[in-house]
Backbone:
């Protein structure tokens, strides 16, 4: 939650941005119906602001104390409790306490009827990744399935599919890993002009190997030597031959003759290790620091509070969706308003502001990617 103070007449305007952190590509799970979200009172907002400021200044004990006092109040509504627990999750993550981070996010889900559905669904995905990082793969799968059953399939990105492939791979469910890898590669090829990352094919090789599909393994390696001539495939071919009983020296010699690029190889890659070495880690950067899977802009301006809303003392929020280009700029034509409450007040300023955002480019194998389905929530409130 960030704020900027604007002075109009005798009113001081607090313009807040509250991100409904969604998986990048990345957050894509809105239900058709819209919940009525309770308002946050000015007094509670001020306490939240103080807790956030203490967190930003790394005064963790002070932030904890403010939030505990706030949560002890019986008069606050469930939305306010959910936001307080969101701050507690951020605090726990800042203190490197994975258990408390998870507990806080699970607590937020107990207030599901009082938070935006987009946020609820993003938390399901985030919890899956948090449990994945803790190697609690059963729990990770539980939340992943909950997210998958709620998410809008038409907006699911290839990064979501690759995460499912990773999850099934570490659970040794290789047939399911292959299912999601195929979907990942197909979707990536449809929406990107870049080459499919070699690591995805390495996991495919490893999965087929574990399932005993040795003919398929050899076929994939041979295809990659043609489509992506690189010594990694030569070393992998030699490793496969060793696993099949060839002496190492013979395996390397055979692999050297497989393609011109292989002529100078001297080491090997086991088909078993090919997948293990390329499993993606949960998202990093600002996403993890918040304990969410949000994709946040690194440069952002605050929206201008509409004069009409000021005069009528109207508060509300706008949730927008946008596409981030490979250079980090926002595709202005891609911005759409998903939710606005109330409608007719804040949509224009939210869209205009979102168009100015700058994001840190997302990269795969060092290559910047276009990211669709990024969501950002603007929250507007007035303080005396």
Residues:
């Amino acid at each position: 939650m960030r704020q900027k103070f604007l002075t109009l007449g005798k009113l001081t305007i607090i313009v807040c941005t509250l991100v409904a952190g969604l998986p990048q590509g990345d957050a894509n799970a809105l239900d058709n119906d819209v919940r009525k979200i309770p308002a946050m009172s000015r007094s509670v907002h001020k306490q939240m602001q103080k807790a956030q400021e203490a967190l930003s200044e790394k005064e963790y004990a002070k932030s904890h104390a403010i939030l505990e006092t706030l949560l002890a109040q019986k008069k606050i509504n469930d939305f306010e409790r959910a936001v307080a627990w969101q701050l507690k999750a951020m605090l726990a993550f800042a203190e490197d306490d994975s258990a408390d981070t998870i507990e806080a996010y699970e607590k937020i889900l107990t207030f599901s009827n009082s938070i935006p559905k987009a946020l609820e669904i993003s938390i399901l995905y985030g919890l899956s990744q948090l449990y994945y990082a803790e190697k609690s793969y059963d729990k990770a799968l539980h939340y992943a399935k909950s997210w998958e059953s709620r998410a809008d399939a038409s907006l699911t990105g290839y990064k979501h599919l690759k995460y499912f492939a990773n999850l099934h791979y570490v659970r040794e469910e290789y047939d399911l890993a292959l299912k999601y890898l195929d979907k990942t590669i197909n979707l990536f090829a449809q929406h990107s002009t870049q080459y499919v990352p070699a690591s995805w094919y390495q996991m495919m090789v490893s999965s087929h190997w574990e399932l005993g599909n040795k003919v398929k393994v050899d076929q994939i390696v041979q295809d990659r030597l043609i489509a992506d001539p690189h010594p990694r495939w030569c070393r992998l071919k030699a490793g496969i031959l060793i696993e099949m009983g060839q002496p190492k020296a013979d395996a390397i010699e055979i692999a050297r003759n497989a393609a011109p690029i292989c002529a100078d190889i001297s080491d090997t890659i086991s088909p078993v290790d090919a997948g293990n070495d390329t499993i993606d880690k949960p998202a990093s950067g600002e996403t993890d620091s918040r304990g969410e899977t949000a994709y946040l802009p690194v440069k952002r301006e605050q929206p201008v509070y509409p004069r009409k809303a000021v005069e009528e003392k109207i508060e509300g929020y706008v949730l927008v969706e946008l596409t981030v280009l490979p250079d980090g700029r926002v595709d202005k034509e891609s911005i759409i308003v998903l939710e606005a409450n109330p409608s007719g007040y804040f949509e224009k300023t939210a869209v205009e502001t979102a168009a100015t955002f700058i994001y840190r480019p997302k990269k795969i194998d060092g290559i910047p990617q276009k990211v669709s389905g990024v969501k950002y929530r603007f929250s507007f409130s007035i303080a005396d």
Q: What stands out?
A: The two ends are 19 Å apart (CA to CA).
